[in-house]
Design goal:
Layout (H helix, E strand, L loop, with lengths): L1 E5 L10 H11 L10 E4 L5 E4 L6 H5 L5 E3 L5 E3 L9 H5 L22 H5 L5 E5 L2
Antiparallel strand pairs: 1-6, 2-3, 4-5
């Protein structure tokens, strides 16, 4: 299964470059609220990288059948089938599905690696996991 992984979690300095790169690539604006990767905070206040684990909860609730797992294990949103209802975003246990009010469809991490390339601390990697 292909997915985005924080391999050097403790090196994250919460610069948000990953989030800016993601939102710019998919929404053509640097807006952390529409990034499919999020940087939160641990109990001690240090940064916590939140990346889609490809759990499939979004696909389970999609009544339109717009979210399917591809051959590499990545759940993808079919923009032609997505109705924009936002149920997938509500169902995501990690808060990583994006349903922007300005966009007609939902989006999520597709393990493209744009965020990993933008990270100055090399915290993120795209990995193939069993």
């Amino acid at each position: 299964m292909k997915k985005l992984v924080a391999v050097r979690k403790d090196d994250c300095m919460a610069c948000y470059q990953c989030m800016h790169a993601c939102s710019a690539a998919y929404y053509k604006r640097e807006d952390v609220t529409v990034s499919a990767i999020q940087i939160g905070a641990k109990k001690d206040g240090s940064p916590k990288v939140l990346a889609c684990p490809q759990c499939g909860k979004c696909a389970e609730v999609c009544e339109a059948g717009a979210i399917k797992q591809n051959a590499k294990g990545v759940y993808m949103v079919n923009k032609k089938l997505c109705t924009g209802c936002g149920k997938c975003a509500e169902a995501c246990p990690f808060g990583l599905m994006v349903k922007d009010e300005e966009a007609p469809t939902a989006s999520k991490c597709i393990a493209c690696g744009i965020c990993a390339k933008a990270c100055p601390m090399n915290v993120l990697e795209i990995k193939e996991e069993a």
